Amino acid sequence: MHELAITQSILTISLRAAEEQHARRIRAIRLKLGAFSGVVPECVQLYLDVLAKGTIAEGAKIEAERLPLRVRCNDCGQVSEIDRRHIACPACGSVNLHRLSGREFLVDSLEVDT
Amino acid sequence: MEIKVLHQVMEWNDDVSAQVRDALRAHRVCLINVMGSPGAGKTSLITALIGRLREQFAIGVIEGDIAGQIDAEKIAALGIPAVQLNTDGACHIEAMSIQHILPQFDLDRLDVLFVENIGNLVCPAEFDIGENFRLTVLSIPEGDDKVAKYPLMFTDTDCLALTKCDTLPYFDFDTERVAADYRGVNPQGPLFRLSVRTGEGLDALAEHLAGRIRAALA
């Protein structure tokens, strides 16, 4: 439901970045989404189609890349990709972990015409 | 042509939540974000916790609801400063709403501010509101599959309260399943089984929270 506010933020960020580069049109907006993000890219696309009308982002496509949950074990040092339902080091079972990726939610890049 | 952007989408909320956290730290107020489904018993639990914590701490409450004043009136009836925050349809509270409402409290006379979030197991978990810690509430009638179905709410929390445990004889609710799923997504998070109605387990949760509040205010 909160994809509307999020899409507004994505659009604002994208328009600002495109203007700084004097782009004439935004063709695609590439997002990076961590495994924990509950954002639905299809929903963002629907809102963008409406919000971007009359801007240089009109018709832009949302391309989302999912990033896995990666952790480094603070006990044995192993770096692993793990399932978010089983937060433990696969090598030694420790739950003393440092999260390397999985919580991202960012506008990574734009495909533009200049 | 590709332009690199690398800009956090949630920045608008992250910036404001940091401001809220700074403002509360300056006034030595601990913010507790209480989350759970509609009907899980968030208001009843907050009320019960107020009863057990009010002698140690000066408490205020922000009651988040989509509409209406019902919950704020319940809390205000206890003689506790309470402000209703209506989101007018939004499914969660954002840091900006907390920032706007803080001036309605005399923060120098508060130690603890409970925020009862919008009843919802999905969206509130994604928004940092400047809290010191999070308390997730799950009630027995909701079913024992909720941790598996809504993992973020149980991953990004500091504490899980399993409420309405007095109703366990009437539901096919496997508390061990919930405990195991919760350990999977949040291996360090404590779990408290309680009933506001019978009082079972409330002292243990209140004691745990009091320790966390003291640590936050130290």
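Chain B has eight helices and eight strands.
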